[in-house]
From TrEMBL:
Pfam families: STAS, Sulfate_transp. CDD domains: STAS_SulP_like_sulfate_transporter. InterPro entries: SLC26A/SulP_dom, SLC26A/SulP_fam, STAS_dom, STAS_dom_sf. Signal peptide: none annotated. It is found in: Membrane. Residues 470-569 form the STAS domain. The keyword Glycosyltransferase does not apply. Keywords: Membrane, Transmembrane, Transmembrane helix. This is Sulfate permease, SulP family. Its main location: membrane. It is a multi-pass membrane protein.
Length: 578
C-alpha cells in the first residue's frame, strides 16, 4: 500500500517595493544620477520649446471649457510645476488638456466657475488617494478600444464646440452643451457667418500646417497666433478677441484662495470630481507610457498620480482648472532633448515669464485664431488609423469602440468609459472561458508491470485495455468563474464503476474562489458516495487557494504529479479489495 502525504503550502511572493521607492519623484532620481551644466542646458531648451507650444494651447483649452485664458495659463504654470517636481515620470508635462473640455464646460455651466474650481480640488484629493492606495497599476487595464473610442468622441465634441468661433456665428440663444441640441442651433445660425472670421481661422490652420510641413521644428501654433494678433492690432480688424471678451490676461499670478465649501455642494460636485480624477489618471498614465516608449525609461504610476493630485489642488487654489499629463506637450518635451523633470519645471517658469512680459499683447489674439488651433488639436486627437484597424479587427473590438465613441458624443464621458470597460470585461471573460478545457480518460494498465499505470496514447482505446476504476480529469487554462459552470457539469458525470477520481491541475495557472468552491462541492458529493478525490500537479499558488477554502483532508488529498496520484489511487483500491 502506498502512503500519500499532503505537502505544506508556502507560496512565494516577490518582496514588495519600499514605500520610498514607490513614491520617490523622478526629480530626485535624476539629481542622484548626477546633474551637470549640459543637462541644465538641454532642459532649458526643452522647457522653452514646450512653453512656446503650451501658451496658445492653454488659453484655447480654457476658453473652450468656459474659463478665462488667464486660468488656462495659471493651470499650466502651477500644475506643470508640481507635476514635474513630484511626478513619477522623467518627461511628463502637466497642464490643461483638451480631453477635459467637455467635462469642465458641463461642470462650469451647472455649478459655475467656483464649482469647477472646487471639483478640481476634490479631484486632486481623489487622485492622491488612488496613488497612495497603489491603484495606479489598475488604471492601465482600461481596454485599448475604450481609450481610442472616448478620445475620438472627445475630439468630435471639441470641434463642434468651436464651430461658432470658427465661423463667427451670432446665436439667437445660448449655445447648448449636448451635441444633438447644439447642432440645430448652429444650423439655424449659419446665415450669420462672418467672412473675416472664417478667413482668420482658416489662415491659422493653413499657417500651422504649412510650418509643420516645411519647418517642423518651428513653433507653428505660436507663430500663427502671433501673426493673427499682430494683424488684428495693426489693421484694427473687427474681430472678437481675448481683450474684448475677457479684458486681457493679468501680468501676475493671483493670491491663493479656497472656493466656497459646504456639505451639500461637495456631494453635488462629487460625480464631476470622480470623472475628473478618472479621466486625469487615464490621460496622465497614457502620456507617461508614451514617454516611456519614446525614451526606454519607466515611470512610477502611483507617484505620478500623487503628483497629479497635488497639481490639481495647487492649480485650484490659484483659480486654475483641471491638470493632467498632456501627451502632445510631453512628446514635444522628449523630442526637444529634455534630460529630466527640470525641463517641466522650467517650462512653468517660462510661462510665468511670458505673462509678465507679453500680457498686454495677448488682448489682441482673435478667438477665431484660437478656435483654429483647437480644431487642429481635435483632428490630431483622433487616432484615425487605430480606429479603422479596430473596426476591422473583430466584432467585439468594434462593439467596444463604437459603444464608447457613441456614448461619449451623445451621453456622458464617464458613462462611456464605464460601459466600454464593462463590455471589454465581458468580452475578455468570454474569450478566457473558451481557452479553459477539460478532458477525461481512464488510465491503461501495463500487463507486464501491474503497479505501473500510464496515460493512454489514444484516449479512445477500448475499455478492455483500461483501468475502469480510476477516472482522470485534466483541466487546462485559467480556472475561474467564467469556466466553472461548464467544467463543473462535466465533473459531475461520474459513473458508479469509478472508485477513485483524480483531477489534474498541472495545466491550471490560476484558480479563483468560484472555481474552488465548485471543487469543494464536488468533493463533498464524492465523499458521500465513498469516492476518494485526488488533486494532482497543482502549483503552490493554486493549491494555496484550494486549501484556503478548506479543500483539504479528508475531502481530498494532494499529489505533486499525475503519476504519483495514479499510484496512490491504485493503492487505495487495492486496500479496499483486501
Amino acid at each position: 500500500m502506498t502512503k500519500t502525504t499532503e505537502k505544506t503550502i508556502t507560496p512565494e511572493t516577490p518582496p514588495a517595493p519600499a514605500l520610498g521607492e514607490l513614491f520617490m519623484p523622478k526629480l530626485i532620481t535624476v539629481l542622484r544620477e548626477g546633474y551637470t551644466l549640459a543637462h541644465l542646458r538641454s532642459d532649458a531648451v526643452a522647457g522653452l520649446t514646450v512653453a512656446i507650444v503650451a501658451l496658445p494651447l492653454s488659453m484655447a483649452i480654457a476658453i473652450a471649457a468656459g474659463a478665462s485664458p488667464a486660468q488656462g495659463i495659471i493651470t499650466a504654470i502651477i500644475g506643470g510645476f508640481f507635476v514635474s517636481l513630484l511626478g513619477g515620470s522623467r518627461f511628463q508635462i502637466g497642464g490643461p488638456a483638451g480631453a477635459f473640455i467637455v467635462l469642465m464646460a458641463t461642470t462650469a455651466q451647472t455649478f459655475g466657475m467656483d464649482g469647477l474650481i472646487l471639483a478640481t480640488m476634490m479631484a486632486g484629493l481623489i487622485l492622491m488617494g488612488i496613488g497612495f492606495l497603489k491603484l495606479g497599476t489598475y488604471i492601465k487595464f482600461i481596454p485599448y478600444p475604450v481609450t481610442v473610442g472616448f478620445t475620438a468622441g472627445i475630439a468630435v465634441i471639441i470641434f463642434a464646440s468651436q464651430v461658432k468661433e470658427l465661423l463667427g456665428l451670432q446665436l439667437a440663444e445660448p449655445e447648448p452643451g449636448p451635441l444633438l441640441e447644439k447642432l440645430p442651433v448652429l444650423w439655424n445660425a449659419l446665415p450669420t457667418t462672418d467672412a473675416l472670421t472664417i478667413a482668420v481661422s482658416a489662415a491659422t490652420v493653413l499657417v500651422i500646417l504649412g510650418i509643420r510641413r516645411w519647418r517642423p521644428h518651428w513653433p507653428g501654433m505660436l507663430i500663427a497666433v502671433a501673426l493673427a494678433a499682430g494683424a488684428t492690432a495693426a489693421f484694427n480688424l473687427p474681430l472678437e478677441t481675448i481683450g474684448s471678451r475677457f479684458g486681457g490676461i493679468p501680468s501676475s499670478l493671483p493670491w491663493p484662495s479656497l472656493p466656497e465649501m459646504s456639505g451639500p455642494r461637495l456631494i453635488a460636485l462629487l460625480p464631476s470630481a470622480i470623472a475628473f480624477a478618472l479621466l486625469g489618471s487615464i490621460e496622465s498614465l497614457l502620456s507617461a507610457v508614451v514617454a516611456d516608449g519614446m525614451t526606454g525609461r519607466h515611470h512610477r504610476s502611483n507617484s505620478e498620480l500623487v503628483a497629479q493630485g497635488v497639481a490639481n489642488i495647487g492649480a485650484a487654489l490659484f483659480g486654475g482648472i483641471c491638470v493632467t499629463g498632456t501627451i502632445a506637450r510631453t512628446a514635444t518635451n522628449v523630442r526637444a532633448g529634455a534630460h529630466g523633470p527640470v525641463a517641466g519645471i522650467m517650462h512653468a517658469g517660462f510661462l510665468l515669464l511670458f505673462i509678465l512680459i507679453v500680457a498686454p499683447l495677448a488682448s489682441f489674439i482673435p478667438l477665431a485664431c484660437l478656435a483654429g488651433v483647437l480644431a487642429l488639436v481635435a483632428w490630431n486627437m483622433v487616432e484615425k488609423r487605430a480606429f479603422m484597424i479596430l473596426l476591422r479587427a473583430s466584432r467585439a473590438d468594434a462593439l467596444i469602440l463604437l459603444a464608447t465613441f457613441g456614448l461619449t458624443i451623445f451621453r456622458d464621458l464617464t458613462e462611456a468609459i464605464v460601459v466600454g470597460f464593462a463590455i471589454g470585461s465581458v468580452v475578455f471573460i468570454h474569450r478566457m472561458s473558451q481557452t479553459t478545457a477539460i478532458e477525461s480518460w481512464t488510465p491503461f494498465v501495463d500487463e507486464d508491470k501491474p503497479d505501473r499505470i500510464t496515460a493512454p496514447a489514444d484516449a479512445r482505446a477500448g475499455p478492455a485495455e483500461q483501468d475502469a476504476e480510476i477516472l482522470v480529469y485534466r483541466i487546462s487554462g485559467a480556472f475561474f468563474f467564467g469556466a466553472a459552470a461548464s467544467i463543473g457539469s462535466v465533473l459531475e458525470r461520474i459513473a458508479d464503476t469509478h472508485r477513485v477520481l483524480i483531477i489534474d491541475f498541472a495545466a491550471v495557472p490560476f484558480v479563483d474562489s468560484t472555481a474552488a468552491h465548485m471543487i469543494l462541492g464536488l468533493a463533498h458529493r464524492a465523499r458521500k458516495r465513498g469516492l476518494p478525490v485526488i488533486i494532482s500537479g497543482a502549483s503552490d499558488i493554486v493549491q494555496h487557494k484550494l486549501v484556503a477554502l478548506e479543500i483539504t483532508r479528508p475531502l481530498v488529498s494532494y499529489e505533486p504529479a499525475l503519476a504519483q496520484a495514479m499510484t496512490a489511487a491504485r493503492a487505495r483500491i487495492d486496500a479496499r479489495n483486501e
